Amino acid sequence: DTGVSQNPRHKITKRGQNVTFRCDPISEHNRLYWYRQTLGQGPEFLTYFQNEAQLEKSRLLSDRFSAERPKGSFSTLEIQRTEQGDSAMYLCASSYTSGDSYEQYFGPGTRLTVT
Amino acid sequence: AQSVAQPEDQVNVAEGNPLTVKCTYSVSGNPYLFWYVQYPNRGLQFLLKYITGDNLVKGSYGFEAEFNKSQTSFHLKKPSALVSDSALYFCAIIMDTGRRALTFGSGTRLQVQP
């Protein structure tokens, strides 16, 4: 169990550019979540997958955001035409839906700065 | 509306003293409650959870939390604080047992002074 990993850890981009983040969950976990955390706030839910199916997207996730989880393993989050308001920490978490194992395990996050 | 609240932005405590970080919630149905800790430049780490059963739950690093249904609270406690406990603490709740997404409070910064 190597934990949840995220790449890159930091990304600085200019407004209008596209960016893509990757998340590798804990291998046996079937659920994968994306959250966004801004300074001084708790993380906010963006979307989640069960295996390869994206089951829900928050209304926080505009049309410029897209997420995939091909083959039910790693996931990518892409932001098109970035805006300064997209600057935040993007967190990935994974979990295994069995019994009362509701806890999620988080990666270190990708900090996005849009200039 | 369903929510979770952390009324204190910061808690200061001296090393060796007991600590409490407060959390209250509002949810219809049975609550699923969690505490996470966030250290600088690191991800959120799971501390403990309440799903059902005993109101006092024990977790990692000597932390425990008490579920109080009548007061709709889930306060985090530790009998003796360490300087290394200084971090940002988040209370979270699952409101939908289908999607199981976490809804977080705004966080409480714990500062333990030597």
Would you spell out the secondary-structure blueprint of this structure?
The complex is a heterodimer of chains A (115) and B (114).
Chain A: E1 5-7, E2 10-13, E3 19-24, E4 31-37, E5 44-50, E6 53-57, E7 65-68, E8 75-79, E9 88-95, E10 105-106, E11 110-114
Parallel strand pairs in A: 2-11
Antiparallel strand pairs in A: 1-3, 3-8, 4-5, 4-9, 5-6, 7-8, 9-10, 9-11
Chain B: E1 3-5, E2 10-14, E3 19-21, E4 24-26, E5 32-38, E6 44-50, E7 56-58, E8 64-68, E9 73-78, E10 87-94, E11 102-104, E12 108-113
Parallel strand pairs in B: 2-12
Antiparallel strand pairs in B: 1-4, 3-9, 5-6, 5-10, 7-8, 8-9, 10-11, 10-12
Keywords for this entry:
heterodimer; A: 115 residues; mainly beta; seven-stranded mixed β-sheet; four-stranded antiparallel β-sheet; B: mainly beta; six-stranded mixed β-sheet; 0% helix; globular
Low-confidence stretches of chain B: none
Q: What is the end-to-end distance of chain B?
A: 41 Å
Helix content of chain B: under 10%
For the terminal residues of chain A, how far apart are their CA atoms? 36 Å
The interface involving the most residues is between:
A-B, 26 and 25 residues
**What proportion of the residues of chain A is helical, as a percent range?**
under 10%
Poorly predicted tracts of residues of chain A: none
Largest sheet of chain B: 6 strands, mixed
Treating each run of at least 4 consecutive H or I residues as one helix, how many helices of chain A?
0
C-alpha geometry of chain A: globular
Largest sheet of chain A: 7 strands, mixed
Beta content of chain B comes to: over 45%
How would you classify the helix and strand content of chain B by structural class? Answer: mainly beta
Strand content of chain A: over 45%
Number of helices of chain B: 0
Radius of gyration of chain B: 14 Å
Shape of chain B: globular
Which oligomeric state applies?
A: heterodimer
**What is the N-to-C order of secondary-structure elements of chain A (H for helix, E for strand)?**
EEEEEEEEEEE
- In round numbers, the mean pLDDT of chain B is 93
Radius of gyration of chain A: 14 Å
